[in-house]
Amino acid sequence: MVESAKLGLRDINGVISKQMVETRLLPKLKEKLGYEISFNHYQSRLKWFKKQYSNYSQLMRHNSGFGWDASTKKFTASEEVWADYLKSHKEHAHLRSETCPDYEDLRIAVGNGTATG
User: Which residues form the Myb/SANT-like domain (predicted)?
Assistant: First the structure.
């Protein structure tokens, strides 16, 4: 999906069409993974990726004081900022200590990030 974004396969709304997914993306996934993936499976994974990205982006978009450390793949903030955020988002407590290795790719694939490279 990141590669598709880098190749400019999205339409003007930022969506990769079903035809594009079936003709360009799914064959590459089959080659890489070694088994066939249906369009429905692709949509299911896309929904999951969007939910993951939504959790990450909510943290970054709506809360000043948060940052991203690309070298450690972790979200950063002061103790006070984390404490305030986790009062109303207890379900995101894992983001404080876990690495998020896919954040940058998700930003490109399902977020509004720009593909570079």
Answer: 1-85
- For range 15-39, the mean pLDDT: 88
Give the type of residue at 64. S
Q: Are 77 and 61 in contact (CB under 8 A)?
A: no
Rounded to whole angstroms, how far apart are CA atoms 80 and 101?
24
Tokens for 99, please give them: 């690495």
- Please give the Cα distance from 109 to 111 (Å, whole number): 6
Q: How far is CA 25 from CA 5, 20, 29, 46, in A?
A: 11, 7, 6, 13
How many Å separate Cα 16 from the centre of its chain?
Answer: 15
d(CA 38, CA 23): 12
Which has the closest alpha carbon to 46: 112, 94, 111, 114? 111
Going by C-beta distance under 8 Å and a sequence separation of 6 or more, which residues neighbour residue 96?
Answer: 75, 82, 86
d(CA 99, CA 81): 18
